[in-house]
Amino acid sequence: MRRAAFALVLTLASAGICAQEEEPTTHPPAPPQTPRPALLAPKSLHARLLDIALAGSRMVAVGEQGVIIHSDDGKHWQQSRSPVNVMLTRVRFSDAQHGWVLGYSGSILQTSDGGMTWTLRHFDPQSHALYDVLFLDAQRGLAVGAYGTVLESSDGGATWNPGAAALADQRLHLNAVLRLADGTLLVVGEHGLLARSRDAGASWQALHSPYIGSFFGAIARGAKGVLAFGMRGHVYETADLAACPATDIAHWDPDGQQAADTPQAAAALGWHRVENPSNESLFGVLPLKDDGLLFVGINGTALKQAASGAALTVVKTPAVETLVHAVDYQGRVIAVGRQGVQDLGALP
């Protein structure tokens, strides 16, 4: 299904996350026409949370109803005041002090004190949810989201305007954006979208994708490589993103794509399918020491890749509900998801 994408996780978060591959039968309440601050709630630690990030030695997590919480010791959490009460989907920090939060209604929040206080930089009740943000430098920012939403900033995030028209015109859910060491940008999304830019987002190419389902995230591997992961446990890796065949995204037809059903077909496109013992959808990835990765996903799924190209192995954790993202906090895996914050134990 074209619309069985990451947005479904966010939609269902307010009613209970369930099977990723099914269309939602419930819908979140209509967004407010003007931003309303989130309520301070004593049980915010156990709210449904969709992302977590490190701001130096501080953890910051975000989720439903505008909840933003932080911890300086991994044990005690406090709720920060949030200028919006909509679902928050992503938190990113460029350093220990400066960070961004994204959410529904095109919400973009900024902090300059490590997540203690937040300022609203963009809010549009007619806009779709935003899922990820990347700053190319101190001034230029790129935010992506549902139904082809792309916003750009050229003034350090003070203002945001529609951008990347060719990418936006596809009207696909854009789930994540990252930059490789050589400056190449990659946006991953539904229908197997792998969109590459070699000119800081001025133009985009659609790679010939090995998979036609949704990619929910990606991470750089080495100097030129990328690993992309998503629906039903599909994980693909390339050693050289620049060498992968592509076409101008304006001429790319998502409905005309075919999956690479064999290792040979994937290799012809420059990709290797990573072996995975699980078919659960994967939402987050945590870099480990010695080139390893830890993936988290539906039903408490946790999987480890020991090194680039290696098969995934199951990691046993106490989690039974969906996990969305995780961080390494002083040698322990701290994850967020349907049951809020969870300590999954020592790094595998």
Structure explained in plain terms:
The protein has a domain at 49-163: 6 Propeller (Neuraminidase). The protein contains three helices and 28 strands. The chain has helices at residues 6-13, 165-168, 263-268, and strands at residues 49-55, 58-63, 68-71, 78-79, 88-93, 99-103, 108-111, 119-122, 130-135, 141-145, 150-153, 161-162, 174-179, 185-189, 194-197, 205-207, 215-221, 225-230, 235-238, 246-248, 272-273, 282-287, 293-297, 302-305, 312-314, 323-329, 332-337, 340-346. A hairpin with a 4-residue loop joins strand 6 (99-103) and strand 7. Mean pLDDT is 91; it is low at 1-8 and 10-25.
Spell out the blueprint of helices and strands.
Elements: H1 6-13, E1 49-55, E2 58-63, E3 68-71, E4 78-79, E5 88-93, E6 99-103, E7 108-111, E8 119-122, E9 130-135, E10 141-145, E11 150-153, E12 161-162, H2 165-168, E13 174-179, E14 185-189, E15 194-197, E16 205-207, E17 215-221, E18 225-230, E19 235-238, E20 246-248, H3 263-268, E21 272-273, E22 282-287, E23 293-297, E24 302-305, E25 312-314, E26 323-329, E27 332-337, E28 340-346
Antiparallel strand pairs: 1-2, 2-3, 3-4, 5-6, 6-7, 7-8, 9-10, 10-11, 11-12, 13-14, 14-15, 15-16, 16-20, 17-18, 18-19, 19-21, 22-23, 23-24, 24-25, 26-27, 27-28
